[in-house]
Amino acid sequence: MQVFLTGGTGLIGSAVVAELQGAGHTALVLARSDAAEAAVRRVGATPLRGSLADLDVIRSGVEEADGAIHLAFGNDFSSEEAVARSIAEETAAIDAIGEVLDGSDRPFAVVSGTPWIPGRASTEQDPLPTEGIVGGRGRTVTATLALAERGVRTSAIRMPRTVHADGAGGFAGLLTQLARQTGVSGYPGDGAQRWPAVHALDAASLFRLALEQAPAGTAWHAVDDEGDAVRDIAAVIGRKLGLPVRSLPEEAFGPLGPVFAMDQPASSARTREALGWRPTHLSLLADLEANLQA
Does 37 share its domain with 82? Predict the structure, then answer.
């Protein structure tokens, strides 16, 4: 299968490309710069020069492919306006991919986030949030899954708060970045809130399984650690960086402060049972212990 990917040079995307190629598929990867294009070629994949805003380029890539995976996102969380711009750009790109795949029965796996459900771990059956700072992404993914009714084998791969590798990535990576900037390894509130996590290589294997097996209109959870207490994550970061660890107000975490403060564990029991997904790589806390450098 030839697979078109957006975001194929990022932390998750590069792992997905390697996973696809290891399983005998080929990858056509959107590359927005000379450096990205070179990185794609180095791993034996084919680059397609363009950015997430180049909708005609994206359409041409999908037309050449047997399936598609969307991973790219602007990742500018500096303000609510910046997040809204990234969501709008992502939505337009996903819509363009869906237009080409309409009626083809080809697979289309789109990245998402795990939902948060008060009082329990979220499951694959729970709906995505459609309000708040990241609600636009939930609305887009929900609409994408509905393309199943138009002959597209859509699936949503829901990522936990931290997708990590080599001691970096996700919300834990943002905590590390903030700790380096402020000299304090902080957590919101009492730090008892839980964040799910997964290693990027394990997440990559789920994207491949979904592309190969997932029925149309289904959602799956790429969750290994169901929920690490944020104060435990901050404690490892503080110890590895030699910094004090303490509670900070939500405002210290920028526009994502309210999301950081939520208790949001997630389960992947259905995903493991239905698709045979088995995470095998380091947990988040073990990865930070082994690889985070001062």
Answer: yes
